[in-house]
Amino acid sequence: MKQSLIQQIEAICSDRGVRLTPQRRLVFELISKNKKASSAYELLEQLKAVEPQAKPPTVYRALDFLLEQGFIHRVESTNSFVSCCSFGEQKHFSHLLICDKCGNVVELQDDNLIALLDKNIDKHQFQFSNHVIESHGTCKNCSSLEK
Ligand SMILES: [Zn+2]
Ligand SMILES: [Zn+2]
């Protein structure tokens, strides 16, 4: 875990005047350390190793906070969480490439794609709350292992 990542979110939290509690910080560290997207259950198990008294609401509250601040994304199709690759903006939409073999998740950001989606949604006068853009398949690593 790169120290700078934690320092970055600490700085953003103090700028925004929100509190990065030790538990929130720990859940974020676990998500960034895990190679695969982490489920709330996996996070709870990992958290318990450090804080035996941790309960599911502890994890859910930390996840809500991290999602709200834009530090992590929810992988809707697998109900798991990954850390965001750029937490500059409070909220942004990303395109996730999800490997079904190793569980690796890559985050892409294409403003043109998002603008196109917004335009199409506008045409229907639809009040949207969230875009979920996820592509499933096999990552480069896994597909080269098959050969
Ligand atoms: Zn992101
Ligand atoms: Zn893979």
TrEMBL record:
* Keyword flag Metal-binding: yes
- UniProt keyword Glycoprotein present: no
What CDD domains does the annotation carry? Fur_like
Pfam families linked: FUR
Sorted alphabetically, which InterPro entries does this protein's record hold? FUR (IPR002481), Fur_C (IPR043135), WH-like_DNA-bd_sf (IPR036388), WH_DNA-bd_sf (IPR036390)
Q: What are the subcellular locations of this protein? A: Cytoplasm
Write the record's keywords in alphabetical order, separated by commas: Cytoplasm, DNA-binding, Iron, Metal-binding, Repressor, Transcription, Transcription regulation, Zinc
Principal subcellular localization: cytoplasm
Q: How does it assemble?
A: Homodimer.
Q: Which PANTHER family match?
A: ZINC UPTAKE REGULATION PROTEIN
Homology family:
Belongs to the Fur family.
Record protein name field: Ferric uptake regulation protein
In which organism is this protein found?
A: Vibrio hippocampi
What lineage does the source organism belong to? Bacteria, Pseudomonadati, Pseudomonadota, Gammaproteobacteria, Vibrionales
Gene this chain is encoded by: zur
